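Trying the structure run again after the queue cleared.
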Amino acid sequence: MNKKNVERRSVLGGLGIGLSLPFLSACSSVNARAGEYPVAFTDAEWSKKLTRQEFYVLRKAGTERAFSSALNDEKRAGTYACAGCGNAVYSSRTKYDSRSGWPSFYAAIDGGAVKTSTDFKIGYPRTEVHCADCGGHLGHIFSDGPKPTGQRHCINGVALDFIPV
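Done. Tokens:
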């Protein structure tokens, strides 16, 4: 049993949540099996391609510190692409200031740019959002966003590259 699973088990155990280690392990990293996504690399290949922080967020489903990304304050028109593979995932037209500390959007780019799954890493279900091309973890979707969707795609800035118009 690795250190991460021990820490996760002790935290969740303290909350009175009895989950098995295989379940927790499945939730601890992005599930990108060969053939599941058009862009697929091994962890060793991803770690050479990405910065340490990008690897932590995109491939291990980590979260950057709030208010740490310059993209949080980005106001120019343009497209936000997955920092892992370059897939266009969000448009500046749907970006808004949620005051959450992370770049936020009320919708992804149409056409299946992102996929979602359910994660239980903090003891209750959340909607996790992934790049549809490489499976990279981008952030989470919450139901406290503005109209027209009512959604807040709370996205790690380190998981995005901004391409100005």
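The helical segments are 3-14, 21-27, 43-49, 52-59. Worth checking whether this holds up in the mutant runs.
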